Amino acid sequence: MTGIYRVVTHVLAVLFVPVAWVVARGRARHVACQWALGARYPAENLAGLTPGTYAAFTAARTEALWRHGILLGLTSGHRDAATQADLFRAEVRRAGSHELALHLTLPPAQSQHVRGVALDVRPYEGAQWLEVHGGRFGLYRVYDNEWWHFEYHPDGRPQRLPHPGFAATRAAS
């Protein structure tokens, strides 16, 4: 099924190019790609990302689709502090402890989603593409246990950690 979505999205992007050329001459392929991906992922929300993160992600997904035929969607980007706190509390309940919850999520003060520089991407194939090519855009996978989580680091690759709370659990020991 992913192959069908990929082909349909690519065809849509091609069909959108003439209209995008009228709207944004020098960026027609980029704009057409964003429209096609918006049709493929209608519930996706890019609001709240920092300008650099937004630009890096949209440039990466444009290259992924046009050059490699790979779809790159966003499951979650910016989250406000209240939403992040709710996610963390739910994970504490599910995992059974604060320390175990840190293996999959962080409290708002530590979450890069709250800062607008973290991206949870989909599908797996898109994340694989981003793992290989994302550095050109300042987008890096930062946790071993989260294939979907990437962050914008324009100054270069950050240290890769085993899980989100690794630094906090290491400092506590």
The class by helix and strand makeup works out as alpha+beta
Q: Major sheet, described briefly? A: 4 strands, antiparallel
* Alpha-carbon distance between the two ends: 46 Å
How many alpha or pi helices? Answer: 8
Characteristics of this structure?
elongated; alpha+beta
Characterise this structure.
The chain is an alpha+beta fold. 54% of the residues lie in helices and 9% in strands. The protein is built from 8 helices and 4 strands; from the N terminus they run αααβαααβαββα. The protein has helices at 2-23, 28-40, 51-68, 81-95, 98-101, 112-115, 124-133, 166-172, and strands spanning 73-76, 118-122, 139-141, 149-152. A 4-stranded antiparallel sheet has the order 1-2-4-3.
TL;DR of this structure?
By secondary structure, this protein is α+β, with helices and mostly antiparallel strands.
Topology:
Blueprint: H1 2-23, H2 28-40, H3 51-68, E1 73-76, H4 81-95, H5 98-101, H6 112-115, E2 118-122, H7 124-133, E3 139-141, E4 149-152, H8 166-172
Antiparallel strand pairs: 1-2, 2-4, 3-4
Helix pairs in contact: 1-2, 2-3
